[in-house]
Specification:
Largest sheet: none
Radius of gyration: 16 Å
Helix content: over 70%
Number of strands: 0
Number of domains: 1
Order of helices and strands: HHHHH
Number of helices: 5
């Protein structure tokens, strides 16, 4: 791929992601959550689908529902998000899980991928939190 083709693909994915975020926002509003809570969920998911999934190569939203979450919460989020803590690992996972449940309900991801995502979160949460704790408390940062 050349840079121009990449730019077009990235922009196409971002535009599609806006539509997915709008669907998610409508679903969250329907549950009568506070606007601050809705904004936090949207910002978290936006970081995942528009930063992480597009960081190394242009991955569409559906590609993030499954095993991609491990690379995000177990590595990328810990190193790249200055606000990463064991608590934010858990809240970030919850937001992403809610988002993909919404996408499942609207037919944008398949059930098998959603279940893989949920299992990965459940099985790895304590490891990710420990990794984050170690990273945040390390005096030996690898810059």
């Amino acid at each position: 791929m050349d840079y121009e083709t990449d730019d077009i693909l990235f922009e196409t994915i971002r535009e599609q992601n806006k539509q997915y975020l709008n669907i998610f926002e409508a679903d969250l509003k329907a549950t009568h959550l506070k606007m601050n809570t809705i904004s936090n969920h949207l910002a978290t998911v936006d970081f995942y689908i528009n930063t992480y999934l597009l960081y190394y190569e242009p991955l569409e939203m559906a590609a993030g529902c499954g095993n991609e979450i491990h690379g995000f919460l177990g590595d990328f989020f810990i190193r790249k998000a200055m606000w990463s803590t064991p608590v934010t690992i858990k809240s970030t996972a919850a937001s992403i899980k809610k988002f993909y449940k919404s996408m499942l309900d609207h037919g944008h991801v398949d059930k098998e991928s959603y279940l893989i995502l949920c299992d990965d979160i459940k099985e790895n949460m304590s490891d990710w939190q420990a990794e984050c704790e170690d990273y945040n408390n390390s005096d030996d940062l690898d810059w």
